[in-house]
Amino acid sequence: MSREEQISRTFVELADTLVDDFDVIDFLQQLTVRCCEIFAVTDTAVVLAYPGPQLYSPAPCDPSPALSEVLEQAVRAGPARDAYHTATAVVPGHLATAPAAWRDFTAPARDAGYTYACAVPLRLRQDTLGSLLLLRTDDSPLPLDDLSVAQAFADAATIGLLHARTLKNAHTVNEQLHTALHSRILIEQAKGFLAARRHISLSAAFDTMRRHARHHHLLLTAVARGVVMTGGLPQPPSTARRPLGDTASE
User: Fold this and answer.
1) Cα–Cα dist 48/130, whole Å
2) Per the confidence metrics, is the pTM higher than 0.70?
3) How many angstroms from the chain centroid is the CA of residue 230?
4) What tens digit of pLDDT does each residue of 84-109 get?
5) How far apart are CA 149 and CA 202, in angstroms?
6) Could you tell me which residues come within 8 angstroms of residue 19 by beta carbon, excluding any fewer than 6 positions away?
7) Which stretches does DSSP call E strand in the chain?
8) CA-to-CA dists, residue 239 to 175, 222, 247, angstroms
9) Cα diameter, the chain
10) Where are the domains of the chain?
11) In terms of CATH, what superfamily is 3-167?
């Protein structure tokens, strides 16, 4: 599949939110997956606000330990926080010359091997829901073409969130995004249970749950809840539900 086809497919996925079983956390996870596939980046994360200026990172759901530490600081300082507060793209360049105000973010990011970090806001006119953080380990900054498309993805994702059938106003959006935070905690617990039960890695456990959810048209959080409650993957309902996003891609 060409880059142009990948970009077109992603825009279609980001627009596909008008469904009764819209899953916010899987939607955001898919955004990070597509960014890593299409752009010259090492890792991508979504940072969201709930409530008001308080930030957290619900996606990716399965960050590495090093990335988890970086994201803990990214909500307090750095490009993701600045992009959210200014509603503009933040591209400072090499982390070795990052602003002093980013110190708490820059130190763990460089320790994790990242050399460049930038972010674009999740915005629609006066509404800014958060930002999209892009991290690189190469010796060059993110190409400007990638940054432009990343901003377009972030804009499309924001429009999708605000127009989803279950998100009827800004207050409801915040409630759904707050639910996404708790969903991530549930998914983290399920990953641990499934990994221990099957003697596999946490990453493999997450991939297994996500494939099961998409194959059987289940919410990712429902699969995670089933794993926590029963120790195994839940059985699909007898009546098939509409799939979320691109069921052919994991």
Assistant:
1) 4
2) no
3) 27
4) 999 999 987 789 999 999 999 999 99
5) 31
6) 165, 242, 244
7) 43-49, 55-59, 116-124, 127-136
8) 28, 16, 17
9) 57
10) 3-167
11) GAF domain (3.30.450.40)
